[in-house]
């Protein structure tokens, strides 16, 4: 893993000086992400029988057919998670798998008509959850939050050697 980061000197017990978990941005982002995912997962699982990875797969495929490799890149889910989500959706006839014309080892996933109908049913719920989560923020704050998250994603990609 490539890294341009120099660690802070360790103190007693090997803890980096000044690390307060509740003030540590990666921790806060993880906690916020997990909380939002849990909230939404209950609704998708209970009402539609979809896991969060299956919903993410459905959401990206609603934008057009993709290979599993492209889905991994687009969603930051690992290959195993994408594969399991796709298998579950294939068994429910929500997606189809078509062999790649250019690479015999790869394939493309596409939403079926059933998958598109289910997405059309879920999308308004997803947007309602987003609106409820952002209700306490001004529109300018929402726009700034989105810009800052994109910058953090870019910085993380560069630091990991992926960007």
In short:
60% of the residues lie in helices and 6% in strands. It is mainly alpha-helical and 163 residues long. The mean pLDDT is 88.
Report what the structure shows.
- With 163 residues, this protein is mainly alpha-helical.
- The chain has a domain at 48-159: Winged helix-like DNA-binding domain superfamily/Winged helix DNA-binding domain (Arc Repressor Mutant, subunit A, Orthogonal Bundle).
- It has helices spanning 25-48, 52-61, 68-75, 79-91, 113-134, 139-159, and strands spanning 95-99, 107-111.
- A two-stranded antiparallel sheet has the order 1-2.
List the helices and strands and how they pair.
Elements: H1 25-48, H2 52-61, H3 68-75, H4 79-91, E1 95-99, E2 107-111, H5 113-134, H6 139-159
Antiparallel strand pairs: 1-2
Helix pairs in contact: 1-5
Q: What is the chain-wise order of helices and strands?
A: HHHHEEHH
How far is it from the N-terminal to the C-terminal residue, by CA? Answer: 12 Å
* Number of H- or I-type helical stretches: 6
Helix content: 55-70%
**Multimerization state:** single chain
**CATH architecture assignment name of the domain at 48-159:** Orthogonal Bundle
Give the averaged pLDDT, no decimals: 88
Largest sheet strand order? 1-2
Largest sheet: 2 strands, antiparallel
Overview features:
163 residues, 2 strands, mainly alpha, Arc Repressor Mutant, subunit A
């Amino acid at each position: 893993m490539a890294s341009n980061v120099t660690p802070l000197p360790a103190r007693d017990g090997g803890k980096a000086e000044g690390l307060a978990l509740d003030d540590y941005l990666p921790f806060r982002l993880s906690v916020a992400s997990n909380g939002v995912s849990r909230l939404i997962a209950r609704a998708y699982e209970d009402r539609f029988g979809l896991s969060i990875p299956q919903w993410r797969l459905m959401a990206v495929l609603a934008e057009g057919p993709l290979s599993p490799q492209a889905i991994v890149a687009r969603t930051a889910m690992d290959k195993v998670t994408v594969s399991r989500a796709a298998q579950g959706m294939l068994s429910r006839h929500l997606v189809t798998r078509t062999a790649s014309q250019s690479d015999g080892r790869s394939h493309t996933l596409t939403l079926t008509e059933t998958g598109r109908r289910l997405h059309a049913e879920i999308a308004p719920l997803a947007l309602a959850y987003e609106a409820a989560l952002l209700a306490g923020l001004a529109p300018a704050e929402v726009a700034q939050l989105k810009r800052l998250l994109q910058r953090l994603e870019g910085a993380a990609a560069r630091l990991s050697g992926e960007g």
